[in-house]
Structures are given as structure tokens and as C-alpha cells.
């Protein structure tokens, strides 16, 4: 093109104004001979500027013109292009949106004529029209060409806005149906003898079955085969399998014309391990006996599409009743939700933020939420039984199962996300759900969706906005209508019926749905600000309650806490505004009895669950606890009031410890469950032991002050024993102690002894007085002479007794002795006194070793409760706590004098020291440590769940499930938990048999 002065800059500017990004290249293309008749035509530039990518559209047009077979064909295309706006919009729209379809048109230059028609029937073709379009295909190559020609017309209507995303998805599914029929016809023509032997039905699943297919997607199918009259079933199924396999290859294999799409039959019974074709009776037998929840969810979209349609209809009619009973299965809702979480967890970390389909706030979130509601309520309401997501969402809203506003927002978000997905796939006709990172591609996608001002920024903003809506609503969708059903708000919107609400509560795992609905009504009814906030919180809380073993207890506990604190200004604000508080509360209230019982006695402790100034869930150091308790003692009027204050602190801190343990064991949306089980055990043991020591210190100070003023006439120390001395107390443990005193100078020994005994008596009484706070039981049975001996002894008395009368079991027990309260100097001297006993210089004699083994064996036989399963007894059973501890303690008694690392009261530290000293192998130490941690966790779990101490797994199913959840086993996996415990304990017992009972000198 020879331009007058200024001509080039004028054209260049005009091109930029019309959306071209490479105006120089566009000028050269416009100057090409093929476009000579139209180079100055403003209609062409306007049309190109209206496309998603004008540069791409212009290049594709030039390529198409170059591919025309003759000048006459080229002239016909140009004349039609200028005179027919429908063709112009369609053809250029496709060329600006898809390089893959531009390539097809270049290879088949006459196919542009498929876009000329603009009759009414052409706007919304169905299966029949597509079958006509594929009718001439006789082999895989010609089928691909015909398929792309039909796809061209769908894409043209789509990019021009003639059809919406839902209509385009339906057309793609209809084209897939016609293609499957054509492919099966080709396979049958190639093997007529096989076709004569069998009846074969092709059932579409997934998006094809749901009439909502993508441009490029696996087409999910299931095959059903039956015999023809007089045919052997085995031969018929083999013939059907050959036909099905051939049909799949026709669609999936790559030829000179590429492939169509993969046909995926992995949704069939047993997946890829199962036979490709089954009879109808075989399908039913599998679904009735073996199918998992997700398989019934998948059958929601089952639709016969090819082959023997009567057989296909029989299949759908047979499986549909099973689909609508799926919600009655145990753990139905948790199974569905867990499957969704598993999908998200399997996304590579680098792709999560770009995943349009599977990521948080993606298409799958909408689909899962809708399918969950369909399965729950479709049993009774047949209007919900649609395989198409948007149709089902509309039906759910019309029936009151979903709020209309929520449904409208999800509908809008789903349509936008599907439109993005379509545009991404259409470009190269490749299967992907990742949003591209290239700016040019993002610009093309944004423009294709009508975002012309700043396509890239506007696309990102709209995408994130819709994803946020989906992420916010997809789980609440299941719970919010429950509140509308009971909240008695303004009329005008359909609501869940009482029966539908009850069904939903049952599906969530509530054993008493009527009571649960009454709790919701009490919490959410009315027009007060409190009720409004509750209606915001409860949809999320109900989901968290449902993700526990006892949703009923969680909801009841929440109502009780809300009744107690609802009028305080900070309570609901805490739950609404502090991200962790609401989920932490839901976990704590539904995990068992202990933590809720502690909370109900002083509901204001809920503040600990937040992120703010309440101290959070981190255990407090012992020094801080003692400081707070001693300050409360000083302020109190008398010992009784002082100990009441100390017990109140203990209750609050027990709640803090239990809540932290539960949250760490369950995990939250932001923080996964603690992977190091030993760390959880150590945290609980240390926190409860420190709290017990601080409580005893405060109680001792209170009793002394009340009876003697500032100073007791005798020095007095409390020695922790057993788990207390080992910093391993559990929630239900007594405080094993020894009491030691030493008269002060000039004080009569009798007076000192009376004072010391009075202190002990008063401490025990005050710590056990019935009150709202849990009692702290003091057990001094490990003292010299046991229950027959004096409760308190002087240091000299202990020295005399141990020098003359000490038995092997007493030396053994003293391994755990550690001062915990009272006179520090006296405690230190007591430890100096007993060290030679517990770490004898010459180790143990053979007789002493045999005595310890006899004591252990007798304890196992005498103390194990009658009727208990020894293999599941966490304390006394094989491989339990006793086995591990006695094994480690035997090594401490034998080698503690020469191995300083063994001189510790803590089991895990001693175990590590024994390994470091070469007294056991790394593998044996790891086995014993694992067993000890697991057994301790079991005891903690039982106390948290039942509210009372126990050493065996509960027998009540809900309690057993709750223990399982605490230990990391999902719903329905209590059996796996018991198997894991038995396996762990069995391995530990093998090590104990070798190290403790073995003859080797260790």
C-alpha cells in the first residue's frame, strides 16, 4: 500500500483504536493481496475490533483467504463477509477466539459456509441436527472433520453471544451424544458379528450426562451390556466389550485431524480394575453391596445417550432409587465433604491459585454443594432430580432448599466461571482448567467476556469476586435454609418444610433432629441484633458441628454458652470478628464432654479461644500460674475462699489445655492438625502437671496462712510422684505425692508433726470440696509402708526407713520423684537422699531384677479389670503404658548411676537417653516411643470424650467415633483406629519381651 503523507500514522492510530496490539503487523496483513478489495472498508475494521483478539482474527482471515481453492471462492467469501453481518460476526468472532478452529478452517477452507445459515432452527440445534451433520462420517478421520465443523457453529454462536454459557454447554453435550452414536455406528459397521451378539447401552456421566459439557473434556461413560436372544452371556459381554473399546478408540485416538476427546469409563463399578462392560444385574449387585457414597453422587448425572436406548433407560430406572437413598448412608455428609477436601489437597501448590475448576471458590464447589442438597432432598422432591447444575440450583431455590439471594449469586458466579473456562479451552481446544499467566491470553479472555476497558485487570477482579462469593456460600448453602425454616422472619420466600429441615439435620448426623431444630429456633429467631449475628454465624458453625462425632452435643453446648453470654457485648463480636474463635468453639463443644463441662462452669473462658488478648490457647508457664494463684490467695478472706480461687484458675487452665489439645488434634481451616503426636502429649502432660503444682503451691500457702500466719512451725515440701513427678499428668490423673517436713529450730517434733499432718488434711479437704470446679485428688499411697504408714514424715524418718526397710518397688517408684511445691531447699535435700536408692551405684542384683519382673507380671494379672480386652487396655495391656515405662525404668535402675542422661523423671527423655547410651536400638526406641505416645493419647481422648478417666476404648459408637476423630481417624474409621492400636501395641510388646523379660543382661 502506497500511502500519502500522514496516511500510515492515521491507519496505525485507527488500528490501535480498534483494539489491535501489533498495528504494524496488522497494516502489513491489510496490505496483502487477499484483502485488496477490502483494505479501506470501515466495516471490516469495525468487525475485527469487536472480536476478542483483532490481531488473531485478522491473521486467521488472511490464512483462510489464502487457503481458498480459486479466486472465485476467495471473492465469494469476501462478498459474503461484507454483505452478511451474521457471517461476519460469527466467522471473525471464531477466528479471534480460537487458533485451533482457525487451523481447521485453513485445512478445510469450505467449512466457513457452515456459518452462513441464520435460520431459527440453526440457533438452537439439538441431537438430531448434530446427527445429520455427522451422517456422512464413515471413519475416524471424517468423523473428526465433521465434528469440528459442528463445533465451529457452536463456538460461533457462543462468542457472538447468540447463546449463553448454559445453552452452549448443552449443545456441546448434544454434539457429544451424536458423536458417541456415530462412533458406535462405525464400530458396529466394522464388526457386525459382534453387534449381532449383544445389546450395548452407553450411559453418559459427568458433564456430558448433565448436559453441561466443556469444549474439551473427558466424556465420562458407563457401558451396560446384555445378550441378544439365544446368545451366551459370556460371548455377548466379550462382543460388547470389543465394541465399547473400539468406540472409545475412535473418539480418543490421535489422527491426522487430531482427536475428538478422551472417552473415560473409570466411573464404572470398581473403576479401571473392573470389567469395561457389565450386565444390568451385575451393576445393581455392585451398587447394592459395594458402592461408595461418591459413586451414587456420580450417578446423579447418568443419562442414556447411545446404543440400545431402551436398555439404557432400564439402567437409569434401576439405579435411580439407589441414588436417592444415598443420603441415608452413615457419614453421608462428611464423606461428600471429605471427598471435596481431598480434591483440593491434591492440587499442586503452584496451581491452586490458578485452578478455575478444582480450587477453593471454583466450579467444583458449586457443583458439590448443589449435588449434596439434591441427594438429601431429592428423595422426597422429584423436582430436584436434574443432572444439570444450574437447573438443579434453580429448583432448589424454588423449593426453598436454598435462599433465593444465595442461589442468584451462585448462578451468576457459576455462569461467569464456566464462561472463563470455555474461553480458555476454546483457544487451542485443549483440556485445561488453569487460568493462563500470559498477559495477551488474559487480554483475549477478558475482551471475549465483554471486559474492554482494562481487560486483564477487570478479568482478575471479576474472577476473584465470583470465586469469593462461591467460597463464602458453598458450605453455608447447606445450612442457612435451616435457619430460615425456624427463624420466623419476614414472609415472601419459600422455605424448607419441617420435614425437609429434619431430613437435612439427619443427613448432617444429628441423632435428635427435632431438638436440634428447637435449638436453632431459640438461637436465630427474632429481629434483634443478637439473632441477626447468630444467623450469620450458625451456617458455618453447623458445618463444623457436622464434622464431628457428636453434632447434637455441639449445638446444645453452643446454645448453652450463648444463653449464658448472649447479653455480653463481647461474646458474639468475638465469634464474628476473630477468625479462629468460632471454629475453635465448634471443635471444643462437639469433641466430647470434658471441655464443654469446664466451659459451662465459667462460660467467659470462651474468650481464650480467640486471637486477641485472652491469652490464646498457648499453655502458661508454671511461674505465671503460681504468680496468679498466689496473688488470688493473698486477696482472699480465709483458706476456703483462697482455695476456691485457686481451683477456679485450675478449671480455666484445664479448659485452655483441653481446648488447645482438641484444636491441635482436629486442626482448623487455617492450620492443619498437629503432625507430631508426641508434641501434643508432652504439651498436655507439661501443662496439667505445672497447673497441678501451682494449685498445690497456692493451696499450701492458703492453709499455712490461715492456720499459722506467715510461717509454719516446720519446713514442708511436696514431692511429685508417678505421672505428676514425670510431668505426664493426664486430664483425669490424681496427684501422686509424698509429704516431707523438717521441724524448724526450737520447735518440738510432735508439734511440727501435728502441724504438718493438719496441713495435709486441710489441703486434701479443701481441694475435694464439692463445687463447680473439678476436684484435685491427692494420693499419697506411694509413701513408705503405703496406706499403713504415716501420711507425713520428717526427712530423718525417710532416711532411716529407706536405709533399713526400703523395698525394690519403692526404689522403683522413687524414679519419678521430683519436688513440686513447698520448701525448695527441703525438696532438694530429699532428692539427694533418694538418688542413691533409685540410681544404685552397683546397679541391680539379679534377685532385684527378678523381683521387678514378678511384680510386673502380678500387676498385669491382678489389676486388669475383669472382662476387659487386654489388647485394648492402654495402661496395663500388652504394649501399653506400663510395659513401656517399666522397661525404661528397669534400665534407669540398672544404669542410672553410670549414665547421667537416664536420671530423669520423664519417660520419653529416659527412652531417648537409653537409645543414646546404646542400651536399645534406634528402631526399638522408636517403637516404644510410638506406643507410649499412642496409649497416652488414648487415655486423654477417653477423658475428653466421656468426661471421666478410662484406660480402654469406649464401646458406645458415638464415643468411639469421637475418640477416633481425636486420634486422626475420619468418620467411619473406628475399626481402623482399633487395628492401628493393636498393631502398635503388638510391636511394642515384642520389644518389651526382649528388653524387659529377656535374659540378656541390659
Task: Give an account of the 3D structure.
The chain has 1002 residues and is mainly α. 61% of the residues lie in helices and 5% in strands. It has 45 helices and 10 strands. Strands 1, 2, 3, 4 and 5 form a 5-stranded mixed β-sheet that branches. Strands 6, 7, 8, 9 and 10 form a 5-stranded mixed β-sheet that branches. α14 links the parallel β2 (219-227) and β3. It starts with 6 loop residues before the first helix and ends in a 7-residue tail after the last helix. Mean pLDDT is 91; it is low at 1-7 and 488-492.
Strand and helix map with partners:
Layout: H1 7-17, H2 23-30, H3 42-49, H4 54-67, H5 71-83, H6 85-95, H7 99-107, H8 120-123, H9 127-134, H10 140-159, H11 165-190, H12 192-197, E1 198-204, H13 206-209, E2 219-227, H14 233-252, E3 263-264, E4 277-278, H15 280-289, H16 293-299, E5 303-307, H17 309-323, H18 332-345, H19 363-377, H20 389-398, H21 404-428, H22 439-448, H23 455-473, H24 476-487, H25 498-507, H26 513-524, H27 529-546, H28 551-565, H29 571-577, H30 579-590, H31 594-600, H32 622-635, H33 639-666, H34 677-708, E6 714-720, H35 722-725, E7 735-743, H36 749-768, E8 778-779, E9 792-794, H37 795-804, H38 808-813, E10 818-822, H39 824-838, H40 846-863, H41 881-895, H42 907-916, H43 922-946, H44 957-966, H45 974-995
Parallel strand pairs: 2-3, 2-4, 7-8, 7-9
Antiparallel strand pairs: 1-2, 1-5, 6-7, 6-10
Helix pairs in contact: 1-2, 2-4, 4-6, 4-7, 5-6, 6-10, 9-11, 10-11, 11-14, 15-17, 18-19, 19-20, 20-21, 21-23, 22-23, 24-25, 24-26, 24-27, 25-26, 26-28, 27-28, 27-30, 28-30, 29-30, 30-33, 31-33, 32-33, 32-34, 33-34, 34-36, 34-43, 41-42, 42-43, 43-44, 43-45
Amino acid at each position: 500500500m502506497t500511502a500519502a503523507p500522514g496516511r500510515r500514522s492515521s491507519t496505525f492510530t485507527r488500528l490501535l483504536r480498534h483494539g489491535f496490539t501489533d498495528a504494524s503487523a496488522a497494516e502489513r496483513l491489510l496490505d496483502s493481496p487477499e484483502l485488496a478489495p477490502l483494505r479501506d472498508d470501515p466495516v471490516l475494521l469495525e468487525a475485527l475490533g469487536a472480536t476478542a483478539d483483532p490481531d488473531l482474527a485478522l491473521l486467521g482471515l488472511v490464512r483462510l483467504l489464502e487457503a481458498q481453492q480459486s479466486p472465485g471462492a476467495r471473492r465469494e467469501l469476501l462478498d459474503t463477509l461484507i454483505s452478511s453481518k451474521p457471517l461476519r460476526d460469527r466467522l471473525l468472532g471464531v477466528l479471534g477466539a480460537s487458533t485451533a478452529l482457525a487451523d481447521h478452517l485453513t485445512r478445510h477452507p469450505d467449512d466457513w459456509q457452515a456459518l452462513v445459515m441464520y435460520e431459527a432452527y440453526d440457533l438452537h440445534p439439538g441431537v438430531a441436527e448434530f446427527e445429520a451433520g455427522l451422517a456422512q462420517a464413515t471413519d475416524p478421520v471424517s468423523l473428526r472433520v465433521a465434528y469440528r465443523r459442528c463445533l465451529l457453529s457452536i463456538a460461533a454462536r457462543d462468542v457472538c453471544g447468540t447463546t449463553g454459557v448454559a445453552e452452549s454447554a448443552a449443545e456441546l453435550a448434544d454434539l457429544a451424544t451424536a458423536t458417541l452414536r456415530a462412533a458406535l455406528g462405525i464400530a458396529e459397521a466394522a464388526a457386525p458379528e459382534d453387534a449381532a451378539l449383544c445389546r450395548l447401552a452407553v450411559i453418559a456421566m459427568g458433564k456430558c450426562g448433565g448436559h453441561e459439557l466443556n469444549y474439551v473434556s473427558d466424556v465420562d461413560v458407563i457401558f451396560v451390556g446384555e445378550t441378544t436372544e439365544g446368545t451366551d452371556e459370556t460371548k455377548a459381554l466379550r462382543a460388547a466389550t470389543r465394541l465399547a473399546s473400539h468406540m472409545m478408540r475412535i473418539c480418543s485416538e490421535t489422527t491426522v485431524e487430531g482427536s475428538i476427546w478422551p472417552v473415560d469409563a473409570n466411573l464404572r463399578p470398581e473403576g479401571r480394575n473392573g470389567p469395561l462392560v457389565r450386565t444390568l444385574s451385575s451393576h445393581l449387585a455392585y451398587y447394592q453391596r459395594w458402592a461408595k457414597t461418591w459413586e451414587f453422587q456420580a450417578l446423579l448425572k447418568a443419562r442414556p445417550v447411545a446404543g440400545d436406548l431402551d436398555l439404557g433407560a432400564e439402567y437409569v430406572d434401576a439405579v435411580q432409587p439407589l441414588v436417592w437413598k444415598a443420603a441415608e448412608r452413615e457419614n453421608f455428609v462428611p464423606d461428600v465433604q471429605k471427598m471435596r477436601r481431598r480434591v483440593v489437597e491434591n492440587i499442586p501448590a503452584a496451581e491452586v491459585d490458578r485452578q478455575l475448576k478444582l480450587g477453593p471458590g471454583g466450579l467444583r464447589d458449586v457443583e458439590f454443594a448443589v449435588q449434596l442438597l439434591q441427594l438429601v432432598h431429592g428423595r422426597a422432591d422429584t423436582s430436584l432430580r436434574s443432572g444439570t447444575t444450574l437447573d438443579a440450583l434453580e429448583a432448589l431455590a424454588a423449593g426453598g432448599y436454598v435462599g433465593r439471594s444465595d442461589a442468584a449469586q451462585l448462578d451468576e458466579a457459576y455462569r461467569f466461571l464456566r464462561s472463563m473456562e470455555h474461553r480458555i479451552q476454546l483457544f487451542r481446544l485443549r483440556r485445561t482448567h488453569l487460568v493462563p499467566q500470559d498477559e495477551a491470553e488474559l487480554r483475549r479472555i477478558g475482551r471475549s467476556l465483554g471486559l474492554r476497558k482494562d481487560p486483564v485487570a477487570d478479568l482478575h477482579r471479576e474472577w476473584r469476586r465470583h470465586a469469593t462469593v462461591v467460597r463464602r456460600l458453598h458450605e453455608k448453602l447447606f445450612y442457612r435454609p435451616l435457619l430460615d425454616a425456624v427463624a420466623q422472619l419476614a414472609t415472601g420466600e419459600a422455605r424448607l418444610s419441617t420435614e425437609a429441615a429434619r431430613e437435612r439435620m439427619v443427613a448432617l448426623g444429628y441423632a435428635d433432629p427435632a431438638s436440634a431444630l428447637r435449638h436453632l429456633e431459640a438461637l436465630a429467631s427474632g429481629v434483634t441484633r443478637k439473632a441477626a449475628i447468630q444467623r450469620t454465624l450458625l451456617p458455618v458453625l453447623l458445618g463444623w458441628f457436622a464434622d464431628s462425632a457428636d453434632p447434637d452435643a455441639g449445638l446444645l453446648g453452643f446454645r448453652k454458652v450463648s444463653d449464658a453470654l448472649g447479653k455480653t457485648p463481647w461474646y458474639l463480636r468475638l465469634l464474628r470478628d476473630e477468625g479462629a474463635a468460632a471454629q475453635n468453639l465448634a471443635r471444643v463443644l462437639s469433641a466430647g464432654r470434658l471441655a464443654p463441662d469446664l466451659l459451662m462452669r465459667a462460660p467467659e473462658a470462651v474468650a481464650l479461644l480467640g486471637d486477641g488478648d485472652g491469652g490464646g490457647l498457648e499453655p502458661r508457664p508454671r511461674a505465671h500460674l503460681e504468680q496468679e494463684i498466689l496473688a488470688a490467695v493473698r486477696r482472699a478472706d480465709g483458706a476456703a475462699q483462697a482455695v476456691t480461687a485457686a481451683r477456679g484458675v485450675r478449671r480455666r487452665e484445664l479448659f485452655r489445655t483441653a481446648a488447645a489439645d482438641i484444636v491441635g488434634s482436629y486442626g482448623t481451616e487455617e492450620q492443619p492438625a498437629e503432625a507430631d503426636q508426641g508434641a501434643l502429649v508432652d504439651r498436655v502432660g507439661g501443662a496439667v502437671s505445672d497447673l497441678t503444682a501451682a494449685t498445690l503451691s497456692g493451696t499450701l500457702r492458703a492453709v499455712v496462712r490461715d492456720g499459722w500466719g506467715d510461717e509454719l512451725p516446720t519446713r514442708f515440701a511436696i514431692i511429685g510422684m508417678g505421672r505428676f513427678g514425670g510431668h505426664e499428668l493426664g486430664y483425669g490423673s490424681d496427684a501422686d505425692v509424698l509429704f516431707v517436713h523438717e521441724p524448724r529450730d526450737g520447735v518440738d517434733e510432735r508439734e511440727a508433726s501435728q502441724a504438718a499432718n493438719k496441713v495435709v488434711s486441710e489441703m486434701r479437704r479443701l481441694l475435694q470440696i464439692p463445687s463447680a470446679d473439678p476436684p484435685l485428688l491427692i494420693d499419697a499411697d506411694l509413701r513408705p509402708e503405703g496406706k499403713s504408714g504415716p501420711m507425713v514424715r520428717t526427712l530423718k524418718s525417710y532416711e532411716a526407713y529407706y536405709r533399713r526397710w526400703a523395698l525394690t518397688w519403692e526404689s522403683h517408684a522413687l524414679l519419678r520423684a521430683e519436688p513440686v511445691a513447698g520448701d525448695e531447699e527441703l525438696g532438694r535435700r530429699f532428692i539427694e537422699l533418694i538418688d542413691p536408692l533409685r540410681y544404685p551405684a552397683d546397679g541391680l542384683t539379679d534377685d532385684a531384677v527378678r523381683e521387678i519382673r514378678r511384680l510386673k507380671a502380678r500387676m498385669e494379672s491382678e489389676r486388669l479389670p475383669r472382662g476387659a480386652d487386654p489388647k485394648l487396655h492402654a495402661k496395663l495391656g500388652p504394649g501399653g503404658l506400663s510395659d513401656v515405662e517399666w522397661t525404661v525404668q528397669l534400665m534407669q535402675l540398672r544404669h542410672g548411676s553410670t549414665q547421667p542422661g537416664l536420671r530423669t523423671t520423664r519417660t520419653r527423655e529416659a527412652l531417648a537417653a537409653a537409645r543414646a547410651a546404646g542400651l536399645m536400638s534406634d528402631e526399638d526406641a522408636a517403637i516404644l516411643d510410638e506406643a507410649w505416645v499412642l496409649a497416652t493419647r488414648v487415655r486423654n481422648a477417653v477423658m475428653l470424650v466421656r468426661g471421666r478417666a478410662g484406660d480402654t476404648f469406649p464401646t458406645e459408637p458415638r464415643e468411639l467415633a469421637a475418640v477416633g476423630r481425636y486420634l486422626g481417624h475420619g468418620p467411619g474409621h473406628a475399626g481402623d483406629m482399633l487395628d492401628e492400636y493393636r498393631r502398635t501395641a503388638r510391636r511394642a510388646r515384642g520389644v518389651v519381651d526382649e528388653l524387659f523379660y529377656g535374659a540378656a543382661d541390659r
